[in-house]
Amino acid sequence: MTIAKCCRFCGADLHRTFVDLGRSPLANSFLSTEDLSAGEAFYPLHVYVCDSCLLVQLQEFERAENIFKDYLYFSSYSESWLRHCREYAQAMTARYGLGSQSMVVEIASNDGYLLQYFKEKGIGVLGVEPAANVAKVAQDKGIDSHVAFFGANTARQLADAGKTADLMAANNVLAHVPDINDFVAGFKILLKPQGTATFEFPHLQNLIEQRQFDTVYHEHFSYISLLFAEKLFKRHGLRIYDVEQLPTHGGSLRLFVCHEDAPFARTSRVDDVARGEQQAGLDRVETYSQFASTVIDIKADLLRFLIEARKNGKTVVGYGAPAKGNTLLNYCGVGPEFVQYTVDLSPHKQGRYLPGVQIPIHAPDRILETKPDFVLILPWNLKDEIVQQMAGIREWGGKFVIAIPALTIID
Asked: What is the pLDDT of residues 154-165, one digit of tens each?
């Protein structure tokens, strides 16, 4: 496909690098045994920042339809994430007085991980999910799911069918859409006049300050700040009236968005977060140009650790098979010669191999069987949960390791 190097929001030419991580396969294109002898497609992971609107973005090297057509990310395999979603459902139900006559629509509803908690309360639910294999899991749970990519056309179809929403939820999807304007335009169409849409996404400020470069992969087309989000929603007749700062995914924002003329007062929290971003320099393009140099130290430190471990006869394995882990390992050039295998709770990933580096994926029990010296936690945002789950490795002196924001060995 032809790559147009222009901003997906404002159309300005892109020429300023945020970070260049070389070439990498699609982060969730896990391999079967038969795939190992075939060639893999690698695409540039070169992220730009727009000089005009300051949107940090990756170009669309592969169409979203191909990335999500047979998706292997299922949200229901993290206990902490499910707890987060249960608490969200309770809070939103109370805050907006949702009941049996209400409609909650989630965009990118995955396997029904969130909507199940609203359904339990007798609230009407509808999921919109582009990956048919994942949507089927939700449908099997009794969650009404519409298989489609969300945008203005899908929103009109649902609105014409009487599916307008009192509450719309978009968890970790805003960054995943290549046509960000069409996507947000759909919320303007489907949201009831007094409704609220919430958007959760990893906060760009945390990505920069915590050196979270591994959250860059081809599914993440955009990396978003509150300052940019205000421009985005304003263009489409929507406004941010509240914001919460969350610990999820290494530090996220939850935006509360309504129609421009809806009777929701803007809270001081919006101004507080915006002020913090300005103090961090997110309103100045020079801040973005400095990020690339910080990731090189992480690569050097991880490789130094793995080389020393191998020289000393120590074994290193991984925990998790997240997209961010695939970015880290491919950027650092780490294969099974350094990390013998990784494990994951999801049975959909077990028995496969990580893309690019071709590290095998097993069930977590494999760690207890082989007793490695070190376990490299790839989903560092779930570090506390994983350390608790796998506390038994300390019985043989095993230790946990994380690479981001800095190489740390956890005794």
From this structure: 999 999 999 999
> Can you state the angle between helices 180-190 and 226-235, rounded to 10 degrees?
60
Looking at the structure, tell me whether residues 351 and 246 fall in a common domain: no
Per residue in 204-220, pLDDT (tens digit) is 999 999 999 999 999 89
**Count of residues making up the chain:** 411
How many helices and strands in the chain, by DSSP H and E? 14, 17
- CATH number, domain of 308, equals 3.40.50.720
Beta strands in 155-266 (DSSP E): 165-171, 191-202, 222-223, 238-246, 252-259
For residue 144, give both structure tokens: 């009404």
Tokens of 13: 């030419």
Give the three-state DSSP class for 185.
Answer: helix
CA distance 20 to 373: 32
Domain identity same for 188 and 108: yes
Neighbours of 182 (CB within 10 A): 17
Query: What are the DSSP calls for 150-180, one per residue?
Result: -SHHHHHHHHHTT--EEEEEEES-GGG-S-H
